[in-house]
Design a protein that fits this description.
Blueprint lengths: L1 H11 L5 E5 L2 E5 L5 H4 L2 H12 L6 H19 L19 H4 L4 E4 L14 E2 L9 E6 L5 H18 L3 H7 L7 E6 H11 L4 H12 L9 H6 L5 E6 L7 H15 L6 E7 L14 E5 L4 H15 L2 H24 L9 H14 L6 H14 L10 H7 L5 H17 L10 E2 H16 L4 H15 L3 E4 L2 E4 L2 H15 L2 H9 L7 H17 L1 H13 L4 H17 L9
Parallel strand pairs: 5-8, 5-9, 6-7, 7-8
Antiparallel strand pairs: 1-2, 3-4, 3-9, 10-12, 11-12
Helix pairs in contact: 3-4, 4-6, 6-7, 12-13, 12-14, 14-15, 17-18, 17-20, 18-19, 20-22, 21-23, 22-23, 22-24, 23-24
Length: about 575
């Protein structure tokens, strides 16, 4: 990890040439004295805009700095890591994002005075940038919001890097000068404000890009100047929902509104889960909201095809694609016959199903069961065929502890992060020191006080070396997807607490009314429905019985009903 970070840093600091592979071809960046960077008209437009603001830096240096920044964006957001495929991952190059990306559809939210008008038709998300300069993208967990924003960042950066803006203009339906892409997490901005007392979004942008990511070749005021010039940036603000509390989300939304009031700011796109985008969190005019729609069969077919082409040998890809698509169709047919909603209708669910197919060949019919099999595959690092069998497979699975112990420690970590979300060092990210404080007692009970530190370190290294469930970035640790954190927390509750205890936990601090806990509650019900049906029903009864007021009762009832509908029980009547 450190070596990789240093390699990227070396590129950003202009150490020789930068080479990034894009769709099989090499886009080669030259040194400052070369003609290519200075001949890049796309970059030169940005240079001229900064120059008009009074910047005191040579055109050559600024051109190279923007070039390096674009390369950094491509390096960070342009590839899709392959996980859950065993040691074969090391032999497979991570595919380029455009090679596997499938554009979805989004529905424009009807305005208050448009209720009598015909419902607007969904639009292809590739054209959203042409729908307005202030947009909000909401959707279900795993619906591809982050990937959508990163794909935009990659496409714009590639045009800046290569000087060829024709593909991005055609794909994103853009006219006028190309903006500079800036991708940020509003969850990170929330933690930045907690640690620094306050701070505007512009302060955070400068901090993130200069201090955290090491983009040192650009002038200190570069991004502040770009944000104050007309239509020069495309600001991609992700993860509003990863701010755990409503007050924090409101503060972030307010900061976005303040920045958007400057009409010189270019494009602004904000992404959030549906259930977190309510009340004071919602952005008012001029923002327009688009809701990501469930995947259609042809989109699912396209994504499964591209996934299989990325992970299977060419002579097997077509066959495996058909097998995977047949399994999904059979799974959905069973659910439809039982009166259930479709299960595989987001990019995340397609990916999880594909990983389970790769390792297990049989798909369960319920979300919690699918997540469990996916986590098991990621922890076991299973192999297909004869590879990894026998003693070598045993050693692989026990790296950092047994599968059961790794699952247990990750579940404890997820539980502590979820419930400590109000602290500065918790929620979606946590420090090594805090992680040790949470997990070391469990290692001491299992391994003894003397062996515990070494066992903890082995666990940490095993998890972060693969970076399939947990990864480290800038000294902070986080689950690779919030869905994994939510499922592992649900697993911890289901395995370690009685139904009455779980119900009490959900009612405490009004967790049943908080969007931060919604998925955990649903997945806890789902996991118990799969493993202990009687405990599941007792939990639901206890949730309703303990509700202290009408609002909490209503929230608990809605969650209980939603959880029941997800259960994989023998008969619909039981649900």
């Amino acid at each position: 990890m450190q070596q990789k970070a240093q390699e990227i840093l070396d590129q950003l600091l202009g150490a020789g040439q930068v080479a990034i592979q894009v769709d099989g071809d090499f886009v080669q960046g030259d040194k400052v004295e070369g003609d290519k960077v200075m001949g890049n008209k796309v970059i030169q437009n940005i240079v001229q805009i900064y120059r008009e603001a009074g910047g005191r830096i040579s055109d050559e240096r600024l051109s190279q700095a923007v070039h390096n920044y674009a390369g950094w964006v491509m390096e960070n957001y342009g590839r899709v890591p392959l996980r859950g495929l065993g040691d074969k991952e090391y032999d497979m190059p991570d595919p380029d994002l455009p090679a596997v990306y499938v554009s979805l559809m989004a529905q424009k939210e009807a305005g208050r005075w448009q209720e009598r008008e015909a419902e607007p038709k969904p639009v292809d998300m590739s054209s959203l940038l042409s729908q307005g300069r202030r947009l909000v993208i909401t959707g279900a967990p795993g619906s591809g919001k982050t990937t959508f924003l990163r794909h935009i960042a990659y496409m714009l950066a590639r045009a800046l890097y290569s000087g060829d803006d024709k593909p991005v203009r055609q794909y994103l339906n853009l006219t006028g000068d190309l903006p500079l892409p800036i991708y940020l997490s509003l969850g990170d901005y929330h933690r930045y404000r907690q640690n620094n007392g306050d701070g505007t979004l512009i302060d955070f942008i400068s901090y993130t890009l200069f201090q955290q990511h090491g983009v040192y070749d650009l002038p200190k005021d570069f991004f502040a100047q770009m944000l104050s010039r007309d239509n020069t940036v495309c600001l991609l603000l992700d993860s509003l929902d990863e701010i755990p509390d409503e007050t924090g989300r409101f503060q972030a939304s307010n900061a976005v509104m303040q920045l958007s009031a400057n009409r010189s700011i270019g494009q602004m796109l904000v992404a959030s889960r549906d259930h977190a985008y309510v009340g004071r969190t919602m952005l008012t005019r001029p923002f327009r909201r688009f809701v990501v729609q469930p995947m259609q069969p042809e989109q699912i077919a396209a994504l499964t095809k591209r996934w299989c082409e990325a992970v299977y040998p060419s002579h097997l890809a077509e066959k495996e694609t058909q097998l995977l698509q047949d399994e999904i169709a059979a799974l959905e047919a069973i659910r439809k016959a039982q009166g259930e909603e479709p299960l595989v209708e987001t990019p995340l669910m397609v990916t999880i199903v594909a990983i389970v197919h790769y390792n297990n060949r049989k798909l369960p019919q319920q979300r919690a069961a699918l997540y469990e099999k996916c986590v098991n595959a990621l922890l076991a690092e299973q192999h297909k065929g004869e590879e990894g069998q026998g003693q070598s497979q045993l050693e692989l699975e026990k790296r950092g502890g047994s599968i059961d112990s790794k699952r247990s420690r990750l579940a404890l970590l997820a539980y502590e992060m979820m419930r400590s979300s109000g602290d500065k060092e918790a929620g979606r990210k946590t420090s090594l020191q805090q992680m040790q404080a949470w997990l070391l007692p469990a290692f001491e009970r299992a391994e003894g006080a003397d062996a515990a530190p070494a066992k903890f370190e082995a666990f940490r290294q095993a998890m972060c070396d693969r970076a399939s469930i947990l990864h480290e970035r800038g000294g902070q640790y986080e689950f690779t997807h919030l869905t994994f954190q939510e499922f592992m927390c649900a697993y911890h509750l289901a395995v370690n607490m009685a139904p009455l205890e779980i119900a009490a936990f959900f009612q405490d601090e009004e967790r049943v009314r908080q969007s931060w806990w919604r998925e955990v509650i649903l997945l806890t019900i789902g996991y118990l429905g799969k493993t202990a049906e009687d405990k599941c029903l007792k939990l639901i009864e206890a949730m309703l019985a303990r509700s202290p007021d009408d609002a909490t009762t209503l929230a608990a009832a809605e969650l209980a009903a939603a959880g029941l509908l997800e259960l994989e029980m023998a008969a619909p009547a039981a649900r």
